[in-house]
Amino acid sequence: MINSIENIELAFLTLNDYQELKNAMLEAYSSNFPDSYWDEAHIKLLIDKFPQGQIVIKVNNELAGCALSIIVDYDDFDEHHTYKEITGNYTFDTHKPQGDVLYGIDVFIKTEYRGLRLGRRLYDYRKDLCEKLNLRGIAFGGRMPNYNQYADKISPKEYIEKVKRKEIHDPVLNFQISNDFHPTKILKGYLAGDEASNEFAVLMEWDNIYYEKQSKKAVNNKKVIRLGLIQWQMRLYKDLTELMEQAEYFIDAVSAYRSDFALFPEFFNAPLMADNNHLPEAEAIRELAKHTPEIVQQFSKLAISYNINVITGSMPEMRDGLLYNVGYLCKRDGTTERYEKLHVTPDEAKVWGMQGGKELRTYDTDCGKIGILICYDSEFPELSRLLADEGMDILFIPFLTDTQNGYSRVRHCAQARAIENECYVAIAGSVGNLPKVNNMDIQFAQSMVFTPCDFSFPANGIKAEATTNTEMILIADVDIDLLRELNQFGSVRNLKDRRKDIFELRKR
Question: Model-level pTM?
C-alpha cells in the first residue's frame, strides 16, 4: 500500500464520512470488540459539541484512521473513573468548552495502514490542539491488550513496569509511551467487555508545558518551524541498503525532536561510487545516477513514516541523455517535488560532463514557502532574491566542499542571502574522506542556520552551528512571524527599500 500513496491529509470528521468511518471501526476492532462501532447519532453529537476534536486521517482520500475527543473539567471526575462516566453514559454531556483537559475518547488506524506512523500524526494534532486551546493536558484510558496473558502471574502495576522496561511488548502502551504520554493510574473496570485487558486500563496523560492558568492575555500564535540538519559522514557502504539505513537513522533522530524538515547534503550518496572507481569519473557518476529513482522512492516512504519533510540533498540524474545535479523535496503528505542545480562548477562540467538545470521556483509546504539552492547556486545572489520575491521564508542549501576556502565561499554567501532577503538560511554539508572514490576524496563542512541581523535575531546572524568536520545533527527553531515583523519594523528593510525605480530583477 505504501508504494501507491499519493496524498495524506488530516481533516475534520463530518457526517459524510460516517459510513466509511463505521466500516473502518468494524475492521479495526474486529479482534477485540466484534460488531462494535459508534452510532451515527453519537458521531453527530461529538461533531456538534466539539468539531475541532474530531479528526480523521485520509490516505489517497480514503479514511485510514480517526481520533475523537472532548474537553472535560478534570477535577469533576474521580481518579478511578470509567469510560462510561467520562462520556456521560455516551451522551458526551461531560464535554465542557471551558474545561481544562482534552480527553481522548477513541483513536484507531486501519490495519492496512499501520506501520506508517499515522497514529503519531493524530496524537500530534491533539497536542497542537491542546496548546492552541490553552488546556493543561491530554488524558485518556489506555487499553492493555496483552494483559490477559499475564493476569494470573503479575498485577497490572507490575505489567506496566515490565512494558516500560521492554520486558513485555504491549502494542498500545508502547505506542503511547513513545508519544510522550506517561501512565499515572490503574483504572479497574474501565471499559466493560474488554477481556483482553481484563477490563483494566492505564490512565495516560500528557502535560502541556505552555499552559497558562487563568491567562487573560491575547495570544498571538507564532509559526515556529523546527529544522533538522544532517552533517553526513562520508564513509564506504557495501550497498544502497546500508546507505539508506544510515539515512533512516538520521531521519529518525531529527524526527524524534519533532523536526519539520530534514536536510541532507549535496551528493551524500557519493560513497556508492566506490564499486565503480575503476571506471573513468564520468562513467562512474553515471552508474551512481542509476540509484537515484530508488533513493527518491525510499526517501518518500521515510518522509511519510516519520512525518517529516525530507530535502534529499542532491544526486546525479540522467534525463534525455544528459547528466544533472538534482534533489527532491519529499513531503510528509506523500508528494515529491524536484529541484535542480542551475550553476554547475567548472569541475562538475569538466570531470563529469554535468549540465546546469533551468527551473528556479519556490515550494509550498505545510510550514510555508521555501526555496532550495544547491551549493554553488548560493553564490549567485540573483537566484535567492527571485525566490524571496515569490515569498520564500526559509532557504535550504545542501552543499559539498572539499577545502575550507570552498566552504567559506558557501558559508559567507549563504549568510549574506539571509540578510539581504530577510529569510532564514540552512546549510548542510558532508565531512570525512573517501579515498576509494576519485574526485570525491576529501570533505570540509560546518552546517549552520543563519538569520537576518536585527534585534529579534542573534547579533551575529547565526541561530545554530554544528561542530566543524564532525558527524552530527543540528536542530534549530525558526520563528516565521519574526520575519514579518522585520519586514515591517526592522532597523533596515532590505526587501522594502530596494530602488526598483532604477533597477529590476526578473526571470525569463
Answer: 0.78
